[in-house]
Structure formats: structure tokens, C-alpha cells
Amino acid sequence: MRERAEANLKDAEETVKLKVFRYDPEVEGKKDPRFDTFRVPFKKGMTVLDALIFARDHFDSSLTFRHSCRQAICGSDALFVNGRQRLGCKTQMSELEWPVRIEPLPHAEVVKDLVVDMEHFYDQMESVEPYFQTDELPSGEEQKQTRENREKVKMSTRCIWCSACMSSCNIAAGDNEYLGPAAINKAYRFAMDEREGEAMKEHRLNIIEQEHGVWRCQTQFSCTEVCPKDIPLTEHIQELKREAVKSNLKFW
Amino acid sequence: MTLHEHDVIVVGAGGAGLRAAIAAHEEGADVAMVTKLHPVRSHTGAAEGGINAALRDGDDWELHAYDTMKGSDYLGDAPAIETLAQDAPEEVIQLEHWGMPFSREDDGRVSQRPFGGLSFPRTTYAGAETGHHLLHTMYEQVVKRGIQVYDEFYVSELAVTDHDDPEDRECHGVVAYDIKSGEVTGFRATDGVVLATGGDGQVFDHTTNAVANTGDGPAMAYRAGVPVEDMEFVQFHPTTLPSTGVLISEGVRGEGGILYNDEGERFMFEYGYASNAGELASRDVVARAELTEVNNGRGINDEYVHLDMRHLGDERIYDRLENIIHLAEDFEGVNPVEEPMPVKPGQHYHMGGIETNENGQTCIDGLYAAGECACASVHGSNRLGGNALPELIVLGARAGHHAAGKDMEAAQVPTGPSAKSEDETSLETPVSPGEIGVDDDVAADGGAIADPKAVVENAVERERQRIEELLERDGTNHAEIREDLQKAMTENVNVFRNEEGLKKALEVIRECRERYQDVAVADPSRTFNTDLIHTIETRNLIDIAETITLGALAREEFRGAHWRQEHQERKDDEWLKHTMISWNGGSPDLYYKPVILEGENKEYEPKVRSY
Ligand SMILES: Cc1cc2nc3c(=O)[nH]c(=O)nc-3n(C[C@H](O)[C@H](O)[C@H](O)COP(=O)(O)OP(=O)(O)OC[C@H]3O[C@@H](n4cnc5c(N)ncnc54)[C@H](O)[C@@H]3O)c2cc1C
Ligand code: SF4
Ligand code: FES
User: Fold this and answer.
1) Among B19, B169, B188, B283, the one annotated catalytic
2) Domain of B302: which CATH number?
């Protein structure tokens, strides 16, 4: 592939340099993190993920990063690109300052190169009872839901579990037990869904009111800024705080 | 060696796998999912359009079945199609009961919309992200039930006994490579293994499918002895973005989007490809028209055509097609409000796959398949939009239930080589297909090893050796082989097919196989070695590409998604039959089995497929 790459580079009108973080705990020479530089041909429409794939397939097959859908729906390739959390597949190279610096997500343990350990993120997501719960179901037909209510939860249901928000959050970086924006948003998705009923909503508010829940958020908006699905995370967290206060007053 | 044991093992955690796992759990089985991607990363998430189900007054399952049979161009099996149509409503309601955020009507009921080829607007949807919600809703149920998920475990081979006749074989588990730790691990399934590995679009160089859609399930099942069915039927979508393959939905043309060639001509009309329907002609017609333009030198940059929606006006575009603006900007760097979008045809869906019946069973005892990797067959030669998602939940559930031992009616679709009605005897191939030399994957022992645990342990040992070898030796990198394979497939086995091109493709595939003999993994690491995973996948792509091409060469007619230059009509007298290919120890055997047009209450009469 190297020969093909040389030919591609020669034909290319423009080329761009990537500076990519490398680390492998068991390979000599990679145990100490370093940056490798790759020069790849630039084409209109090229994304950061395309550039990484080119570098891997033509120069170094050991270059490792998660990716699958190439269309911002699988949430695999959140990366730290030029100092900001972004999805590789959803970021046009033309929008970035060159050379482009690509690192794994901060505040997560690096497994290898650009791959980070996602377990902690998954644990937080799964700790908020992230599944629909109700006692009453009509038999043989759907539950009713108003358009307004569906609209209300719409943005919150768009999360693709990419973890960009968690990585950008200072509070999460300092408090490992903090639920983090994505998990709180998941709780919001159910708490605000009228199909679950009032009692369940109480229960859900109790979950997010725990010590490492909504009250930790200091409304810095970093999560909202990086979310590739434009979910108004900070707003959702604020709304849950207000709901929690309201429901506490009710029982006063 | 690590050996996990569960009642049911589900391989793959997209829509089909998740539904199968939940179903097995409903039956009380101890079920585990083994998946190379974390479940929410599965490509089911990419589906936008919706799920067909007859939910409303004025609609019923029989109409859905009729539409599906007609859409299949009479190559679907009636028992499977009717099962799909009958079970879909209940399964869709089940999703709603699990909280799936469907779009709603004013009265609070779930919304449905019209879709191509449907006689009733029965496509149930959740915004423009139906698949995403379906995937997440079912994963939530898996979390709720505490079903064990081994994620980032790559299943590389099945643990199947080695009887001479595939129908005597039994599946006792799978072998998986733990991507993070590098350990080769055995999974024993006491009741059954369900394959739900999704599509195989990576056989082509341009596809709407994910990078992980490499046909691992069909390739593994095929080599273990399960026939693959109707592999030549591959659906291409006419409007995908050239750099990534991201799909631009029919909606743009539905709203009035126009296709232009390099000379600014509205070619659908100018060159008479579809003088009435124009841009709204069916997917295959539009795709062929686009390629003809490019082949005749009227493509833009010799590659694509333009889809223009600027004349619709900002207001209409923002109102109805806003998500298209984001797709074009994010993935192609083009603002479609200001300039036309480049589009070209891309592989989209594979109708063919692992032969199963309507309970998801293959001819190997204990081995099931469901979802896009399987062929029951509900789509025949052409899938209707909105019919894949119901297939995932209906057939996924049935496979899961059956594997867990639920008492179910015996299936009517026959499977395995014993269903053969006819041999293919006249097929001439320029090179011989199948394994090169002896197949060391299958050391024929006539089923000598019968103890289930030993079957799994042997398979693990074989895989361990294969992987060691790939890591230790020096040789070529797989990426170049994969690239050449994909290019040859796109060039010769796309919407245009003729004998010469198909034979050319077989030659390239053979070359790829030969080069693969020397393949090696450059990355020595045991930690997250994606070089290794991709190398194993490339082998699967070669096997799948070959079956698609063989089927395409054999089928001398034009039916559904399969178009042959020399054979421009559907030939019902000769070709109302499924193309079957069995691995046969490494020298593939091509044969046919009849299509079942006899339904529960009626016989489906082949009619001209016109809309
Ligand atoms: C862009 C797009 C839009 C679509 N829109 C629609 C639509 O509107 N309506 C409709 O009905 N259909 C639609 N389809 C088709 C439909 O979405 C797919 O056919 C379907 O989602 C496939 O689901 P699946 O469960 O079979 O596979 P997938 O969701 O692809 O899941 C496959 C799973 O298998 C796992 N896997 C694969 N190989 C291995 C291995 N070797 N070891 C372990 N695990 C493995 C993966 O990790 C993954 O979890 C669309 C398809 C695409 C690409
Ligand atoms: S909320 Fe946004 S940034 Fe956070 S995980 Fe979900 S999609 Fe990613
Ligand atoms: S590759 Fe799936 S989100 Fe980027």
C-alpha cells in the first residue's frame, strides 16, 4: 500500500499532515507515548476519520482507533482533535487548522493509540436505570403519548453514547463517581416521558439527586458545546434540578 | 483456555441479535451476547425510514404479505413472508411498550407514513432515526434483564461437529477473540447459537453499510456447511454521497429534487431512462441510469452526478429536508442550499444470506441466523423499504425463542442440501472457486469428535494456531487485497452485470485468495489489534464476494435487483427458484431449491412488477 500511497500523494493537489498520538503498553517503542506524523492526500469532503483510515491502510496498519458507521450514529470515534472533543467522521478536514493533531479522549484511560477504555462511561450510563418502566400497559395496542411530550424528550433520545461530553467535563474529571452529562440526560429522557407516570418520575428524580448527581453540575456548558448530536445537556440538567426542587417542596 | 458456558449464545447485538437475546431470556434461558462492537454501535442505528407493520383499520397482514411478495419479484417464500407480516404488528407494539419514542399523531397514537411499493401507509417511524431508537430501546431491555454482553469480542469461527453431511452436524458454540486482551476464548452453547452479524456491504468499495459490516456470519456459517441462499441479490441505492457512502434519502427526489449530468441535462428524461417517472423511478432504474451517464462520459469527475434541490427554495428545504443539509455538509463538505449534491449508487442491502426457515433454524442442529445476515427468505430478489427492521424483530424473536426451547409450530421452509431440486450443471467459471489446496479448517473426521466440550476446545485450539501464525509470520498486508476485491466487485458485480464482467470478477477474487495465502499481521500487539481483526474479515469478504458473483453468473435472467445485460427479462418458467451454494469442504456446490408461493390461504400468482 505504501507504493499506492506515494502515487496518491504525488497526484494530490494538496496534502495535509496529521500528528497522531501513539501508545501501546506492550510494544517496544510505543510504551512511552509519542506522536507520529502522517502526510495524506487531501480531497474535498475528507473527514478526520477518512484521513486516519488512509494513514492506517497505507502507512501503518497498527494505527488503532474505533470507528464503524462513518455517519455520526455509532458513536465510536469521539477523538480529541486540535484540542477539542469531536467525532472523527463528522469533522471535515477543511474546517480545521493544519497540521491536524489527533489524540484520544482526555480523562479516560488509554488502551492503545486513540482507543480509550469506555467501561466507566458505560457503568455511569447503566447506573440510572436506563430502561422504560411502567406498571400499566394497554393490551394489544400502543400507549398514547402527546406530540408535545414526544417533542419534549426528542433531543434527549438522540444520544449515541460517544462520551465526548463526559470527556469535556471538569467535574467528571475531578469526581469519578459523578454521573456525568450523558447519564443524567438518559435519566431526563425517562423522567420527562409521560408514559412512565408520576410515581416513576419521583423515583427517577431521587436517582439523579444523589450525592454525585445533578447538584454537582456547575453549568459550565462544555458538554453542550461538544455534543455532536446538539443535545442541550446543560439545559436538561438544569431542568432536572428545578424538577427535583419542585418535587421536594411537594413533600415538604 | 477460557471456556464460557451459556444456554444460548447470540453472535451480534444489532436489532436482530438484541431481539433474539431478549426472546431467549423470555423463555428463561441463560443467554449471552458476543459482539465485536458494543451493542449501541451496531449498524441498525443507521436506519432512518421506518418499520412496516399492519397496525391500522383498513390494513391487514395479508396486504403487507402481498406487497412484500410482489416487491420480492416472486422470489420470497410465502411461509416466511406471511410470518413476517403476521408477527410484525405485535412486535412493533412490543417496542412501543418498551418505550421506543415513535413519532405521534394528534390522537397520541404512533405515526405511519407511505413508502415505496406499499399499498397502505404502514411504515411506522421515529423521526428520521427509527433504527437508532429501535437499537437503543432494545439494548435498554438487555440492560434491564441483566443479560450478559461480551462486547468487543470478535467471533472468528463456529464450533461445529464434522459429520460428512451438513444436516448431521451440530453446533456447540463459537470461538471468539477478546479484542482488548488478545485471548482466544471458547463459548459453549448448550441450547443454541444465533448468528445476527448484519450486512456485508464491505464486499463493495462504496456502500451505505458500516465498516464493520463484513459478512462474518454468512462466511462462517457457509464454511461450517450451511448453504447460502440467493447471494446474487444485492440492493444498490441510487443516491449516496461519493466520499463516504452516506445515504441521501428518497425524500429529496420525492420533494422534487432533480438529477443532472455533467452537461447540465436532466438525464432521466433526456435520455429516456424513465420518461414518465423521471427521478422518481425505482431505485435500480435510477442507479443504472446514473452509471450509464458516467460510463458514457457524462458523469462529473467521471464518478458521480448531481442531485439538485436548490429550486425548492430555502423555506421548503429547511422545513422538510433539514437533516439532508446536515448530512451533505458534515459528510461531503457541500451546502445543498447553495450547490447541488454529488451522488452515486452505493451498495445498500443484501437480500441473500445464510439459509434459514421461518423459525431462524439452519440445517445444522443448534445453529440459527436472523437479520440481514440470514435469508428466510422474506425479501426474495428485492427488499421493500421498511421491511428489514420488522425482519430483525420478528425473525430475531423467533430464532431466540426456538433456540431457548420454546414449543413452536414446525417450519414449512425446508433447509439444507436435502431441499435441493436441481443441480447447476452448466456453469462455466474461468477459475475454480473455493479453497486453494487442502482446507485445514476442516479436518474431516466424519463426526468422530462428538463430545460438545471437546468440539469447542478443538475449535479454540485451531483458531489459536491460526491467529498465532498470522501474528508471527511475515507477509503481505490485507488492506491492498481488500481494496482490489472491493474495486472489482463495484466494477463488475454492481447494478450492471454481464458474463464477461462477472468472469473477470471471479478471476480477481481468485487472485485475491491466492495473495491472501501470504497475508500477515504487521502489528505484533495483543492489545486491541484491529490489524488482526481486519485481516480475518478480509478472508470472509473473499468468500462472500465469490458466492455473490457465482450466483450472479448462474442466474441468466433479470429479476428484482439482479440485472443481466444478456438476459433482459424475468424468466418464470426457468428461474422461480433459489440459488443455493454450499461450501462442500472447499469446492463450492451450486444448486437450486424451489420457491414456495403457496401461502396460508392463497397461492401467490407471479405478476409483472410494475408500480
Ligand atoms: C443507511 C441505512 C438505512 C436503512 N434504513 C432502513 C429503514 O428505514 N427501514 C428498514 O427496514 N431497513 C433499513 N435499513 C436496513 C436495516 O437497517 C439493516 O438491514 C438492519 O439494521 C441490520 O440489522 P442486523 O441486526 O441484522 O445487523 P447490525 O445492526 O448490523 O448488527 C450486526 C451485529 O453483529 C455484530 N458482529 C458482526 N460480526 C461479528 C463477529 N464476527 N463477531 C461478533 N459480532 C459480530 C456487530 O457487532 C453488530 O452488533 C437501512 C440500512 C442502512 C445501511
Ligand atoms: S450526550 Fe452528546 S456528547 Fe454526550 S455521549 Fe451523548 S451524544 Fe455524545
Ligand atoms: S464512525 Fe460512527 S460515529 Fe463516527
Assistant:
1) B283
2) 3.90.700.10
